[in-house]
């Protein structure tokens, strides 16, 4: 999507809302004082925070369709595309590992899994699928991934236990990660971005590609918006029903979790597409478009800036600790103070995003 005038404003806005929400929940004033909806669900269940990462993977899928449609014509086009895709995926993957090492750079405690690493894998796999498969085969593959993951997780006993369990660190996905995943894991003996749970995460990316192809099809714009919202409702209800047999669980990225979050993402995109791109209500969207135009760059900057606000000592305390102490001393409720700090941190990250957007710089990591 090199031509800015052809960009979907609604997609950039949704990406911007998602990255701003990701910063908001990742950087509170204090982890001891956070409102429950701004926490991930401890295990089974779902909170508003749990929608953020799957929304981003869904948007990756949509963006693949918008960026690579029509680029496969001519001799050698696929080979050139593969090289670019693998190179970009490798950059994002390695950047995720690097961010996880800051500031200690302890090579004995490298975490290979991670958020950016999963984004990189989903991006590469989904782009290859988009290049080689039509939308129907993509849909069938997503279904196979979700059903296969469900059957494996609920029918195959965890080796060493002799029974099927879906508990932290004791389920099949955790066992596979313990055997195959190099480096340290986020929770010691399991990782929410582990190897096996990346398969259903690819299905989340495929759902995004299906949404993107719906946006590219030859229908009236209003029909596209309606279809996005209808498909979203169907997927959400399907996921809620599946949850009776396979609980909604972000840490395991269960099949029901994929459908519920993917369905809501479909509906959100449809609503924004109708309101912004069809009806032209662009007022108020500019901050989200600015965030969304350099989303991964902003995500990386937020991680780097957090070192200043959370770890750089200012006297005996960090900046975040000074803020919390001062706000609570002035009578502000502790959880509100923590959320206000997070909102201020989002605003601070908006500044470099605005400068990049103003200068027309769109960094493609």
UniProtKB/TrEMBL annotation:
The keyword Transmembrane helix applies. It holds the Pfam family HGSNAT_cat. The chain crosses the membrane at residues 12-31, 51-69, 90-109, 115-133, 140-158, 195-215, 227-246, 252-276, 288-310, 336-357. It comes from the Bacteria. The keyword Membrane applies. InterPro entries: HGSNAT_cat (IPR012429). Residues 7-218 form the Heparan-alpha-glucosaminide N-acetyltransferase catalytic domain. Keywords: Membrane, Transmembrane, Transmembrane helix. PANTHER family: LD22376P. This is Membrane protein.
């Amino acid at each position: 999507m090199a031509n800015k005038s052809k960009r979907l404003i609604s997609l950039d806005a949704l990406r911007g809302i998602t990255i701003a929400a990701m910063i908001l929940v990742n950087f509170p004033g204090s982890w001891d004082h956070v409102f429950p909806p701004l926490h991930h669900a401890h295990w089974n269940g779902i909170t508003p925070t749990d929608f953020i990462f799957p929304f981003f993977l869904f948007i990756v899928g949509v963006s693949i369709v918008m960026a690579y449609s029509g680029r496969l014509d001519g001799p050698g086009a696929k080979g050139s595309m593969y090289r670019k895709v693998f190179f970009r995926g490798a950059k994002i993957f390695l950047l995720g590992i690097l961010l996880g090492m800051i500031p200690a750079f302890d090579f004995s405690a490298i975490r290979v899994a991670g958020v950016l690493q999963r984004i990189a894998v989903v991006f590469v796999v989904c782009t290859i699928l988009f290049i080689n498969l039509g939308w129907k085969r993509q849909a069938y593959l997503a279904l196979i991934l979700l059903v296969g993951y469900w059957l494996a997780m609920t029918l195959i006993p965890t080796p060493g236990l002799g029974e099927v369990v879906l508990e932290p660190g004791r389920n099949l996905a955790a066992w596979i990660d313990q055997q195959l995943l190099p480096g340290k894991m986020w929770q010691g003996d399991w990782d929410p971005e582990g190897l096996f749970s990346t398969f259903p995460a690819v299905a989340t990316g495929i759902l995004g590609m299906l949404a993107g192809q719906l946006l590219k099809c030859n229908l009236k714009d209003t029909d596209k918006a309606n279809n996005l919202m209808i498909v979203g409702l169907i997927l959400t209800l399907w996921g809620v029903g599946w949850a009776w047999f396979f609980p909604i669980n972000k840490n395991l990225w269960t099949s029901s979790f994929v459908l519920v979050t993917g369905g809501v993402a479909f509906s959100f995109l449809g609503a924004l597409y109708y309101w912004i791109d069809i009806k032209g209500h662009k007022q108020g969207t500019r901050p989200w478009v600015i965030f969304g135009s350099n989303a991964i760059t902003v995500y990386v900057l937020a991680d780097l800036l957090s070192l200043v606000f959370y770890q750089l000592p200012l006297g005996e305390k960090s900046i975040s600790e000074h803020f919390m102490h001062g706000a609570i001393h002035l009578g502000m409720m502790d959880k509100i103070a923590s959320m206000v700090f997070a909102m201020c941190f989002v605003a601070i990250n908006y500044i470099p995003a605005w400068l990049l957007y103003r200068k027309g710089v769109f960094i493609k990591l």
